[in-house]
Amino acid sequence: MPHEPQPQSPDELDAEAVRTWSSLALAALGRAREDIDAINVYPVADADTGTNLYLTAESADRALDDAFTKVTEGTAPASLAEAVRAWAHGALVGARGNSGTILAQLLRGVADVLGAEPEAPGTAETGSGTAGPAAERGAGVLLAQALTRAAEEAYAAVSHPVEGTMLTVAGAAARAGEAAGAAAGTAADVARAAYDGARAALAETPGQLAALGRAGVVDAGGCGLVAVLGALWQTLSGQEPAAEPVRGRAVPVPQPADPCAQEDDGPAYEVIYLLEASEAAVGELRERLDGLGDSLVVVGGDGLWNVHVHVDDPGAAVEAGVVAGRPYRIRITHFGDERRRGRGERAQRAVVAVVPGEGLAGLCGEAGATAVLVRSGEVPAAPELLDAIRRAHAREVVLLPGGAELRAAAAAAAEQARAEGVRVAVIPTRSAVQGLAALAVHDPDGSFDEDVVAMTAAAGATRYGELAVAERQSFTSAGICQAGDVLGLIDGDVAVIGTDLAETAEAVLERMLGSGGELVTLVLGPEVADALAERLEAYVQHGHLAVDTVTYRGGRYSAPLLIGVE
Description:
Distance between the termini: 48 Å
Strand content: 15-25%
Number of helices: 19
Largest sheet: 8 strands, mixed
Low-confidence stretches: 119-132, 245-264, 337-344
Shape: elongated
């Protein structure tokens, strides 16, 4: 249930103020979302900055609401420290894109100051939820310090800070807030000064960054930050900003001397993941990722980080995370033609595919699809699939869930996307190889209905097999298996139990080809040698002369072997 903003004292910083700020910021970003998307030209013109900021703020607001829900049965209200930490954590785990990741670090900086524990007796929180530090130092001074820490941490999180961006706006807001705090201003005075400073800095961004100047727009991420700061001022003053600060209006600026100058297209993929790792390991990770691509932003701390980078080799970026710690919630997006779609124009149609392997994610990306990478055994929830549909940024989306266990989540995500105006069709693929078959016949220029029918038919005509290793003794449809046995599954059921990977694969292939076939697709796991593919290809050619074989590398997280027969 949406939180109803409550009136605040102009010099009161408590948990309720944070809750109101979050609610108003989310609403402001929601209103400005499309306008911000429309002016997104840097670092990649993929028209999603407004969406990414909104989704990040939504995750933060949801975490904050959960924090309040947990204390409603108790006698004490949520404290300022609890509220601001929950808010920042929610942004961290739900950060989307370059701008959302920076917003998460800005909120972490705010939390580092507002969420600090009282240092001496007598500064404990009162029943109203007001923090000891706020009462001790004065809310205006404390807020100014929080905004300064936020800007410092955001700059430190970005590998190569660029002026004329969201960082510039954050820095200007902090300086203006510090000046108001030094003049003994209230928290509302500091918030208004920061808001005005941010708006002034935003207006200057086209003259600081060539990409903005050529397009005649202000920085999209900076627009979003202005909206968030406007919500802060509204929270503390009770006054709504006179005009929406983030309309997608072009700002007239002089054109560069060389009107033909172009920004480098840059890397082809955006890679984002959460990472459990030590601070020392993250330092090494930064250096490694910095050599792989650009737009590197690593935010977080205390063992949990959100990693964002643009690269040409997404597998290497994920592998770097594996070396550093435990990456999860891995999202890989192929920019594709979005760089050339102009300011906010959506693609007519896109494909979203859930795949268990980095190599498969790369294949889908090369085919123009948005991949949702999962580890073997992981089942993404509906919000994760909905996020992928939104990232596809298209009017029409074909969703390939890749597993029967994802049917409910896929249906829920599709229903929500339809409510947002996106036409979505879910093709009930039960394996990644069925998804590859569907992608092979995908026709983005044909009618939506005909494309969905063709992709559904191709997936349905593909029998799928998989080889896995039994983890323990178990009863199966093919008999009792022991730990370490090789299991050959056909259409989801165990059909063969063996002790050798190659021999079991041959037995599975023989059964699958018994009812005919024209093409065999082999997807090799990360530990499987190329010699297995050569042996299986020879096996198919020897017994089925008219059948072709194609082999792909599934990459990390994929099963030992996936088989498709069309």
